Amino acid sequence: MATPAKNKDLHGSAPERCPVALLMVDVINDLEFEGGDKLLRHALAMAQRLAALARRARAAGVPVIYANDNFGKWRSDFRMTLEHCLNDGVRGAPIAKLLAPEQSDYFVLKPKHSAFFATPLELLLDHLGTERLIIAGVAADQCIVNTAADARMRDFEVVVPADGVAALSAARTRRAIDQLRDGLLVKVPAARAMRL
After folding, report:
1. 39, 168 Cβ separation under 8 angstroms
2. 158 near 151, Cβ under 8 Å?
3. What is the Cα–Cα distance from 75 to 160, expressed in whole angstroms?
4. Which structural domain, as residue segments, surrounds residue 148?
5. In total, how many domains does the chain have?
6. CB–CB of 132/107 below 8 Å?
7. Mean pLDDT over the full length of the chain
8. Cis, bond preceding 139 (omega within 30 deg of 0)
9. CATH number at residue 107
10. How many Å apart are CA 13 and CA 84, to the nearest integer?
11. Nearest-5° angle of CA 166, CA 174, CA 62?
C-alpha cells in the first residue's frame, strides 16, 4: 500500500516557510501562583525586550510561536488564557499586554515544562522549515532549559537571548544561562543583537 504524499502546507494552516522561528514560552501567564510576584519583577524588563524582538521578527517574516502552559485545565485554549490574562485583573496582565500575539502568530498549549512534550510544536516547525529556533520567556531555569534541551535533541540550532528569559531570581536566571551556554552549547546573545 502506497503512503500518501506529505502535505507541504499543513492544509493551509502553516503556509509560510522560514528557516528561523521565535518561540515565546509561557509569556501569556497570569502569574497567580506562589512566587509569581517575584517572577513579575524580573520578567517585566524581559517582556519589553521580547516585544521589540517579536516586532523585528514579524517585520522580517519570521514566525512567532507562543507555547503556553494549560495549567492542567484540559478544556482550556490559548484564546481563553489570553483573555483571562488581559481582562481579569491578574498579576501577569502587564506582560500579557506587552506580548499579546498578533493574528499571524501561532500557538501551542503544553502540559509540562518542555514546549515539545505532547504538543504539535515539532510538526509545526517541520512544516515551517525551521532550522534555527530562538527560545525566550519564562521560567529560564525550568521551561526554557527543558525546551532548549528538547530542541537540541531534535537537531535544531538553538539561540536563547540572555536578556529575553527570566526566573524567580536573578541568580536562578544566571544559572540557567550558564547551563544553556555551557551544558547545552546554546548561543546566548542579547536580544537586540539577535540575527533574524
Report:
1. yes
2. yes
3. 31
4. 17-193
5. 1
6. no
7. 91
8. yes
9. 3.40.50.850
10. 25
11. 50
Q: At 57, which amino acid appears?
A: A
Question: DSSP letter at 7?
Answer: P
What was the pLDDT predicted at 7?
Answer: 56
Q: What's residue 15's pLDDT?
A: 54
Task: Tell me the three state secondary structure of residue 162.
Answer: coil
Q: What angle do CA 30, 132, 163 make, to 5 degrees?
A: 45
Spans of the chain, pLDDT less than 70? 1-15, 71-76
Place of cell 498578533: 102
| Residue in the structure block whose three cell numbers are 524582538 | 53
d(CA 103, CA 100): 10
Dihedral of CA atoms 136, 138, 139, 145 in degrees, nearest 10, equals: -20
**Residue 56 resides in a domain:** yes
Give residues with Cβ within 8 angstroms of 48, minimum separation 6: 98
Decide if 135 is inside a domain. Answer: yes
pLDDT at 136 (0 to 100):
98
What pLDDT is attached to residue 4? 45
C-alpha cell at 163: 536578556
Query: Model confidence over 100-144: pLDDT tens digits?
Result: 999 999 999 999 999 999 999 999 999 999 999 999 999 999 999
3 assigned to some structural domain: no
| In-domain check, residue 8 | no
Closest C-alpha among 112, 170, 118 to residue 141: 170
Q: Which of 72, 61, 97, 71 is nearest to 82 (CA)?
A: 97
Contact 193, 159 (CB under 8 A): no
